[in-house]
Amino acid sequence: MSTRLESASPATASPATARALRQLRRHGGLVALLVLVLVNIAITPNFLQLQTLFVNISQVATIAIVAIGMTLVIATGGIDLSVGAVMAL
Fold first, then answer.
1. Higher confidence at residue 83 or residue 58?
2. How many C-beta atoms lie closer than 10 Å to residue 18's C-beta?
3. Distance between CA 89 and CA 85 in Å, rounded?
């Protein structure tokens, strides 16, 4: 009584599928941002107005400045992630 185990070869994706997955990994953030903008355009009636853009920029400005600064600190090797606690104060 012996049993034979045959190993199945892994399924390989077609070159087009592999290329599409590579592009999605590379540009996934932009695709997600585009989807969010399109959903907001469809749901929010005043989303495309200039006033909405100014409100969004004014609300995000402080966090964006801190995020850019933290990116530079982390990229140079002086890792300090305590800014989140300070921003919460």
1. 58
2. 11
3. 7
